[in-house]
Amino acid sequence: MNRMAETAFKAPVYIKPSTKLKKDWFYFWLLDNWKITSGEFAGSPYRFLPNYPFMEAVAKDMSPEIVTMKAAQVGFTELMVAKWYAYAALLQGNLMYVLPTDELAKTLARGRIKEAHSINPYLEQHLSGFDTLQQFKFRSNYMYIRGSQTQIRDGRQYQRQLISIDISRLFGDEVDEWNHRVFGKLQSRLGASLDPIAMYFSTPRILDGGVHKLFVESDQKEWAIRCRLGSCRQWNIGLDIKKHVTYFDEPDRKPHIIICEKCHEPLDRLEMDPQFSGWVAEHPDRERSGYHFNKLFFRAANIDTIVDRFNDPETVEECWNDDLGLPYQPKAFSINNDTLEKCACQSFKTWEEILKECRPLTMGVDIGKTIQYHVRGDRLGMPVMLECGSVHGYDQLSEIAQRLNINRGIVDAQPDFRASLEFVQDMKRYGLSFKVAYFDTHGEKDRVLLRVDTKNTDVVVIARSLAMSQVMFEVVTGKVILPWDVINVDNGDFARHMRAPLRTFKENTETGQQVMYFPRTRKPDHHFMAYVYALCAEQLVQDVANIGRRRTGI
């Protein structure tokens, strides 16, 4: 029995609706007070069009926390901006609308917000104080429009301004592009509210992170269409391009149509009968309400175009994100626990013997919530992970570097370049040579792993994919010695972080060749990156030695 049959389909269960307002209040407020701010229907009263039968249930959902993982350009921002104003009109509490950058926040304010004030008499009537388009008073509530990140130098100060604002309602637009260091802090600001509301919506671009992670932790509602064929009546939940589109892997066999997974008869994407369409929750018992918007059930979307993009190496990732509303999941390779254990020495006694014969060479440092470090040594020409762990400050890191007399080290430039540079310069006092590292892709073409910045010799630039691939190769081929209890190093964080990166390949649009590619993931990978920096620092040592030989004629 399928999930739809088990649940005898109902409208979404609205968990914890606001006790101060009646159910569906926003739905009716929207129809009574809102005029559309952009697009071909700009200036018209808001109406739920036949092309969007799935939108009404979303507007009626009054859950205190709603997450929407959506395809691009599906009209969702209009709905959320309207809801932002509705909460300001009918509930007490300041509100904030957050976009990825301050520039996008200004664009929203100058465009959609300014237009909303000019065409909606209801809004103009209740504006009670006006500082700027990004900060104004509506009735008794302050409304703020902010960006989550700016330039590095201004970013720290701006983030303090962002998280210091007292808010009760948070609307997060395109959260996958946010500065995620402020994400938890913004959520904590809601903790002081007696009636907190949080809306997060974004096109997913990060596997296991951002809006995808929030959606996975929600009740996971998918739009479902029931086949009308009398002998079938199959519920098709969450339209999938591989299951519900004809010839999805043959773009030339047009036209492509949406079909029932079971009987392969065409499905009506405009199905509005509640007995044959509706949102279905995978986990109806969960408190967080989540929706997945997929363009396959949008009547306006061209299925032929989606299939073309899905089969084109240049646009397949965009198709996953912008058309299917999913994070890109390529066929990828990653390190696993078995791989790590094959590199580990056999026993603690053996490990002690190795340490006695090993000389420290380099240190790699990556910055997360704490500072992760990786010390790389050498035993008879074989690289060894001599020491690995986490510390809370640069003073502790300095003590470790001095204790082991590290020859060279590389420190992540992010998130605070100044702090990293100060540490590097401080190490010079002890005769230890450290560099600050940035990633770029310029070295990928020429296979140049690392180069020193011509403007600042304390800075090195690393070819990200090459360096990450070298670490994977070293571990997979067993060309490194790891501690005997490698799975438990740093409370298991080392193994978890080493498993996080995914290596795959994509086509180079200029040459047509397949090139290495590491898609973004929000799984912590700090120990892996510390390993990368330690390996690259060893390359620096070798380069210095080679220069010495050339100069002395050796």
Describe the 3D structure.
- The protein has helices at 3-7, 25-33, 55-60, 76-90, 102-119, 121-126, 152-163, 183-190, 210-216, 241-244, 303-311, 316-323, 337-343, 348-357, 394-404, 417-427, 442-446, 464-476, 493-499, 526-552; strands spanning 65-70, 95-101, 127-132, 135-138, 141-149, 169-173, 197-202, 221-226, 235-237, 277-281, 289-293, 359-367, 371-379, 382-391, 408-412, 433-440, 450-452, 459-463, 504-507, 514-517.
- The model is unreliable at 1-19, 150-158 and 542-554 (pLDDT under 50).
- Strands 1, 2, 3, 4, 5, 6, 7, 8, 9, 10 and 11 form an eleven-stranded mixed sheet that branches. It has a seven-stranded mixed sheet with strand order 14-13-12-15-16-18-17.
- The protein has 554 residues and is α/β, with parallel strands linked by helices.
- 36% of the residues lie in helices and 21% in strands.
- It has two domains: 3-323, Rossmann fold; 337-552, Nucleotidyltransferase, domain 5 (2-Layer Sandwich).
- It contains 20 helices and 20 strands.
- The N and C termini lie far apart (77 Å).
- Helix 11 packs across helix 12.
